TrEMBL record:
Keywords: Cell membrane, Membrane, Transmembrane, Transmembrane helix. It comes from Cupriavidus plantarum. Residues 392-444 are annotated as: Disordered. Its main location: membrane. This is ComEC/Rec2-related protein. SUPFAM superfamilies: Metallo-hydrolase/oxidoreductase. Residues 713-900 form the Metallo-beta-lactamase domain. The chain crosses the membrane at residues 28-46, 58-78, 84-106, 254-277, 297-315, 360-382, 561-585, 597-617, 624-645, 657-673.
Length: 1054
């Protein structure tokens, strides 16, 4: 069964890797083929000669697994087809639409506006059921459930496409959001009526907590967002600096509603209901006889626990950890209700299949693999612990394993090693409690029925003939008299030689209770017995013949062993999640074992319960509870900050290959396998090394790899050589408060193995080029910083230098050279920021790339005129188009080197053109004379600099094979002079989808087409990777290289 459940999950995962959704005919043929094979197999399987063959069930298991795989893929395919059919049609994209509906979630308030989930009213054709909207400066605070009427502009779900980056379009599809957009206008005030009750409850709880939270007026306490996240799952109030600490220490899973928190809360509620149910809802003392309750107390407690977990999960937003926990609790509850006790791995497999059936897109979520992977590792570690503590696990210490031993006894001794939580099978005949105890001492497992009620008795271990016996006797009666009383059980245990453990359940009068003899020792030794009577309460026990101080000493003596067990489990989880952490995030916390050992008890036992009390208790109690919780969290954060401070606190590695991942998973299995020896564990550690030390795909010496990242309306280009990396621009800052640096650049750097930047160039200070500087500098060490921006920029720290024309260096036989701006313009605020963009040329021995920033046509012509002195005269004459200026240009240019053109074009030509054009009807001889004189002075200033570079050399340094299109393809750039001088083969336009600037301009796009240049747009193709190999190079568009069914089909290269 487990194989089939995991195959269903694998089928859903396979579907998410498809370029297009398969047709239903293929699924029909696959299912028909599997069924036909199954029928043929069954006919052959039941032949008399086949039924006795070993391994005859293997083909049936294979067929069932394949069928489950096909069903999983088909289910995910149907869900994806339905969801994508509800997306916004292209015909409605970008149009003004009037929608009425209600706010369906907690609004996200940021500095640039409010983002919220909107549910339009049914009836509008083509409008999705859920829309994500942004509203800049709303007139009032938005709240869940409010009804509004908006005029909006929408677009289909679409996101950036980068290697190893966050897939926004996939996330939107998983959340059921069919369009995104923004509010252009709104009707005054919300409309009458409210909906979204769960979101309203979450908002009310959040408001209560903020009102009771410690802190100054209007300024919440630092960790208020953490307390809110632990109570209702809203993590948006946690500061980024705190997230960095939690990430570096590996406790991010604790600052949300995790499975542990849901289990604790549901277990507490279930225990309370169980106790109340057993005591007739607290009325047992006032009633002469118990209430005739229909359900046994155990089943009532299960129902209460499941309902609590489901309600709390819904309030938390039902993220993957919550969904996993709720699914596991429901599976376990159904199994226990029906009298079964499945092994933990079966419960986990059912929970995974249920979670994926509900949300097929969760299979690609990091939370899915981390959550289920952690629980699987915990089960594996627990099995290993039980084997280590079980004498039956050691054949040398097992008398039943000796030759001639009873096979039944040997099987009984080894049963627990097969499954630590295997359940007892019920026998065919009922037995009394006394019979169950005798059977336990004799090595019999059984179920007990008494007075029409059902019980269970299990023998975990038994030895006869002078061996020890351990026995448990459970009493399920509410009355004082019992069929096999606790005293009888204790006497039975004390009368045994050695140790006896037996388990039984006895029912009487329709009610159930438990009495347990946990352990007893006799034969000249002390007698210890623990009897738990569930009439007193769940978890309450009275030890037979043992005083309270002795009982406390015994419990304290077990504390070191419990701490050691918890440490082993935590260490196993740390090791087991290393492959998932490196694969999904490119890093793993080295200090996570220590941090979690401290944080788990503090957060789970102190902070989380007090946060829940603060969310629901009256104001005075809530204030005290939240103050204590905040203090505890603050103390914990100080210790975590100390752990996160060292640079070695986090180990980073590049994106591993599938082969390295497979080796690492095998290594984890060998390290944690229950019956593994020391030698196998060493092999397991060795198998993990390739993944841990992965450094990415290297670049050959003398070659380069250039990646034009898809950052929306902005620029970010990574240039890699054999042992160096340079980042040109950092992308824009987003309205959500984050940036392309944090969302795109940093994950890409980690995945490609770039642990430090040898150079960071910010072409100029505009937000679409410098928006991610802070996030990048906070995540990656930077050696060299260059920019043309003047000092005093908000993102500028110490150590920034100016980029100037003529600066050049060589890394790994790859030449880097700045062609613009001149030294007199760099860092000069009097010049426009775009005009002084850093222009960088990167060249190998055969190929080159030119990165141009946001320079305009004037700067392009100035750079292009450096080719030859003859070209200077011709271009200046054409641009100025005035006889006086033309004479000046033609007389000056032949006598100087190409550098004169820079100053003539920027200083003389614009002024001359403007003055003469506006005053040609008047006498402006004096103005023209002054312009000519200034041109002459500029020519003399740069003449010496220009003579150092021959014209032919200047022409060769400008020509490039790949051109980063200036200013995103605006109408003020990409002049004919630049295209003629550079003569590129490939042009890359970095821009945003449906950007408000209309980039690229149609005439600019046509200009490149007329010259036969291959054009790529990052909004259509995703990230563009150019890799040189000698005289050849390859261009890899990400959307074409990694296609998925939810992404728009990329166009062919143009």
């Amino acid at each position: 069964m487990r194989a089939c459940l995991l195959a269903f999950v694998a089928g859903c995962w396979w579907l998410q890797q498809r370029e297009a959704l398969p047709s239903w005919q293929g699924y029909a043929w696959a299912i028909a083929g599997v069924c036909a094979c199954g029928m043929g197999w069954l006919r052959w399987r039941w032949a008399p000669r086949v039924r006795r063959r070993a391994g005859a069930r293997v083909p049936s298991l294979v067929l069932a697994t394949v069928l489950a795989l096909v069903l999983g893929a088909g289910w995910a395919n149907w869900r994806a087809t339905v969801r994508m059919a509800a997306w916004l049609p292209d015909t409605l994209a970008g149009q003004n639409l009037v929608l009425s509906g209600f706010i369906a979630g907690l609004p996200d308030v940021a500095a640039h506006g409010t983002r919220f989930l909107f549910a339009p009213d049914a009836g509008a054709e083509g409008i999705p059921e859920r829309v994500l909207l942004s509203w800049r400066n709303p007139p009032m605070a938005l709240a869940p459930g409010q009804r509004w009427e908006f005029t909006v502009r929408l677009k289909r779900p679409r996101g950036l496409a980068n290697p190893h980056g966050f897939d926004y379009a996939y996330w939107l599809m998983g959340e059921g959001i069919g369009a995104t957009g923004y509010v252009r206008a709104a009707r005054a005030g919300p409309l009458p009526g409210h909906r979204a009750p769960i979101a309203q409850v979450r908002a009310a709880l959040r408001e209560r907590m903020h009102n009771a939270m410690p802190g100054d007026a209007g300024v919440p306490a630092r960790f208020a967002g953490v307390l809110v996240a632990l109570a209702i799952g809203d993590q948006r109030g946690i500061a980024q600096a705190d997230w960095d600490i939690f990430r570096r220490t590996g406790i991010s899973h604790l600052v949300s509603i995790s499975g542990l928190h849901i289990t604790m809360l549901s277990g507490a509620v279930g225990g309370i209901v169980h106790w109340l149910w057993r005591h007739s809802l607290g009325l047992s003392r006032r009633l002469r006889r118990p209430l005739p309750l229909r359900w046994p107390a155990r089943q009532a407690g299960l129902v209460a626990a499941v309902v609590t977990a489901l309600a709390y999960g819904l309030i938390a937003g039902m993220q993957i950890p919550a969904l996993r926990t709720v699914a596991m609790l429901m599976v376990a509850a159904v199994a226990l209700w029906s009298g079964r006790c499945p092994p933990p791995t079966m419960v986990l497999a059912w929970a995974a299949a249920a979670a994926i059936a509900i949300d097929p897109w969760a299979v690609m979520s990091p939370g899915f693999w981390l959550s289920f992977g952690a629980v699987a590792v915990i089960f594996l570690a627990a099995a290993r612990r039980d084997l280590a503590a079980d004498p039956a696990a050691d054949p040398a210490a097992d008398p039943a394993a000796e030759p001639g031993a009873d096979p039944a006894a040997r099987e009984a001794r080894r049963g627990r090693a097969k499954d630590a939580t295997a359940c007892t099978r019920r026998p065919e005949s009922p037995r009394s409690a006394e019979t169950a105890a005798r059977d336990a001492r004799g090595g019999v497992r059984g179920a007990v029925k008494c007075d029409g009620a059902r019980g269970e008795a299990r023998l975990a271990e038994s030895e006869a003939g002078g061996a020890g016996v351990r026995g448990e006797v459970s009493d399920h009666r509410l009355g004082i008299g019992v069929s096999a009383s606790a005293g009888t059980a204790a006497r039975d245990a004390r009368g045994a030689v050695g140790s006896v453990r037996a388990r039984g359940a006895v029912g009487s009068n329709g009610a159930r209770g438990d009495a347990l003899v946990a352990e007893s020792e006799a034969a000249g030794g002390a007698v210890r017995g623990a009897v738990s009577d569930h009439r007193v309460g769940i978890g309450m026990s009275a030890d037979a013949g043992e005083s309270a101080p002795a009982r406390m000493r015994r419990q304290l003596s077990r504390l070191p062993a419990a701490i050691a067990d918890a440490a082993r489990v935590q260490w196993a989880v740390t090791i087991g999640l290393v492959p998932f952490s490196l694969l999904l995030f490119g890093q793993v916390s080295v200090v996570s074992a220590v941090a979690n050992a401290v944080a788990i008890p503090v957060v789970s036992v102190v902070v989380t319960p007090l946060s829940l009390v603060g969310a629901v208790a009256p104001a005075p109690v809530a204030s005290v509870a939240l103050a204590v919780a905040h203090t505890a969290m603050a103390w914990l954060a100080e210790g975590l900050a100390w752990l996160a401070a060292p640079s070695w606190a986090v180990w980073e590695a590049a994106q591993p290959s599938p082969f390295a991942v497979a080796l690492a998973l095998i290594g984890v299995g060998l390290l944690l396998m229950p019956e593994g020896d020391r030698g196998m564990r060493w092999y397991g550690a060795a198998l993990m090394v390739p993944m841990v030390v992965s450094s990415g795909t290297p670049v050959e010496h003398g070659e380069m790899r250039v990646t034009f990242l898809d950052v929306g309306q902005g620029t970010a280009v990574l240039v890699e050589t054999r042992s160096h990396a340079l980042l040109y621009d950092t992308g824009p800052a987003y309205q959500s408060g984050t940036s392309a640096g944090a969302q795109v650049v940093v994950p890409f750097l980690r995945a490609t193995g770039v642990r430090r930047l040898d150079g960071l160039v910010v072409s100029h200070e505009d937000a679409d080029h410098a928006g991610g500087v802070r996030d990048i500098e906070a995540a990656v060490p930077v050696a060299l910083r260059l920019t043309s921006a003047p000092p005093g920029q908000p993102w500028m720290s110490a150590g920034w230098d100016l980029c100037e024309a003529g600066m050049a260096w060589v890394w790994d036989d790859v030449r880097f050279e700045f062609l613009h701006p001149l030294a007199t313009h760099a860092g000069n605020a009097r010049h426009a920021s775009n005009a002084r963009s850093c222009v960088l040329r990167v060249a190998t021995a055969h190929r080159s790339v030119l990165l141009t920033g946001d320079i305009g046509a004037a700067e392009e012509r100035a750079i292009a005129r450096r080719e030859t002195a003859q070209d200077v005269a011709q271009d200046v004459a054409q641009d100025v188009a005035l006889d006086p200026a033309q004479d000046v240009a033609q007389s000056v240019a032949p006598g100087v080197a190409p550098g004169v053109a820079q100053d003539v074009a920027q200083d003389v030509a614009p002024d001359v053109t403007q003055n003469v054009a506006q005053n040609v009807a008047q006498d402006v001889a004096a103005d023209v004379a002054r312009d000519i004189a200034r041109a002459a002075r500029n020519a003399e200033t740069v003449a010496g600099e220009a003579r150092e570079r021959p014209a032919a050399e200047a022409a060769m340094t400008l020509r490039s094979d790949i051109l980063g299109v200036p200013h995103h393809g605006s109408g003020t750039s990409s002049s004919a002079a630049l295209l003629r001088a550079v003569a590129p083969e490939v042009a890359v336009f970095q821009l945003g989808h449906r950007n408000r600037y209309g980039h690229p301009r149609a005439d600019v796009w046509a200009r490149y087409e007329a010259r036969g240049i291959h054009r790529y747009r990052t909004d259509e193709t995703g990230a563009i990777t150019v890799t040189t190999r000698g005289d050849a190079y390859t261009v890899t568009p990400y959307r074409q290289h990694v296609r998925r069914y939810w992404r728009d089909a990329p166009p062919a290269p143009q």
